[in-house]
Write a structure and sequence with these properties.
The chain is an alpha+beta fold.
């Protein structure tokens, strides 16, 4: 692996260092190339990169692309926030439903319910009221948790 890395790095360094040469052959013709012939004295030519086009339409396209990418990023972030909120709400609902179902099981074990009067004494409800309380809570659990 190391050998292949060294070989590749040498190849790339050679290609990067290659320049453009200009020479004139025996017939007086001017040639350009990246490898001059050995029998001629070449001159290295400095080649400038082409100028960057900054015309108005290119700038406008670039600005539209930046605006589009910014809008896409905002949309992505908004979706992530919405997904996080939905996941939190789902977790809260699952927790609430687990508590409500546990309470429903507890209500099934209790034989009768009571209220406290103004003196703090227990006032037991009738069997019909017991059944109505259980039914109401079962309906509440079904509505909240499905």
């Amino acid at each position: 692996m190391l050998k292949s890395f060294l070989v590749l790095s040498m190849v790339f360094s050679m290609s990067v260092s290659a320049g453009v040469y200009r020479w004139v052959d025996a017939d007086g013709n001017t040639h350009f190339g990246d490898q001059p012939p050995a029998e001629v004295a070449p001159k290295k030519v400095k080649v400038a990169p082409p100028p960057v086009s900054n015309d108005a339409s290119a700038q406008e396209r670039q600005q539209r692309m930046q605006d589009f990418l910014s809008e896409q990023q905002k949309d992505r972030e908004a979706r992530q926030v919405d997904q996080a909120k939905a996941a939190e709400q789902a977790a809260n609902k699952a927790d609430l439903c687990a508590k409500m179902r546990a309470q429903l099981k507890n209500m099934a074990r209790i034989s009768t319910f009571y209220d406290l009067d103004e003196n703090g004494d227990r006032v037991y409800v009738t069997e019909d009221e017991n059944e109505q309380l259980r039914k109401d809570f079962r309906d509440k659990v079904k509505q909240a948790c499905g």
